[in-house]
Amino acid sequence: MIDPFVGTWSLDTSENFDEYLKEVGVNALKRGVATASSPDVVISKADDGFISMKAGNIMTPHKIKFKLNEEFDETTIDGRKARVSYCIINNGKLVQKQSWDGKTTTLVREIKEGKLRVECTMGDVTSVRVYKKK
């Protein structure tokens, strides 16, 4: 189920990411750093069922380890303390939900035409980031 997502992905295109981060509540300085960088995303799986996802840059590396369909606490790359879950839905999309302070954002990852497409939605704001496999 997770196999198509496994690998190292480099950012190819990014649309509306600053607006999405603003809607999430990320401050201007951190938004500037996030939108100016194009970090690789590394997704791997272990034999014990855990999935690891590593992103960020040299100054702000971020790595999480999780199992599908199990909620866990995460301190996000921008410092939010969130309750997070990942699941695979029937059409093969990897859906991530983050909840904090009564708010929720959803990130939907899918493989489309050999690329990793990430749709980030918070309220009425959506950002789409597309990654090429290295």
TrEMBL record:
Q: Which GO terms describe its molecular function?
A: retinal binding; retinol binding
The protein's UniProt keywords, in alphabetical order, are:
Retinol-binding, Transport, Vitamin A
| Entries under InterPro entries matching the protein | Calycin, Fatty_acid-bd, ILBP, Lipocln_cytosolic_FA-bd_dom
**Boundaries of every Cytosolic fatty-acid binding proteins domain copy:** 7-24
Q: Which Pfam families match?
A: Lipocalin
Q: Does Transport count among this protein's keywords?
A: yes
The family database entries (SUPFAM superfamilies) matched by this protein are listed as:
Lipocalins (SSF50814)
Reading the lineage from the top rank, the first entry is: Eukaryota
Q: Record's PROSITE patterns?
A: FABP
The reply to whether RNA-binding figures as a keyword in the UniProt entry is no
PANTHER family named among the record's database cross-references = FATTY ACID BINDING PROTEIN
Q: Which family does it belong to?
A: Belongs to the calycin superfamily. Fatty-acid binding protein (FABP) family.
Give the protein's function: Cytosolic CRABPs may regulate the access of retinoic acid to the nuclear retinoic acid receptors.
Protein name from the UniProt record = Cellular retinoic acid-binding protein 1
Naturally occurring in which organism (per UniProt): Fundulus heteroclitus (Killifish)
Instruction: Please spell out the taxonomic lineage of the organism that makes this protein.
Output: Eukaryota, Metazoa, Chordata, Craniata, Vertebrata
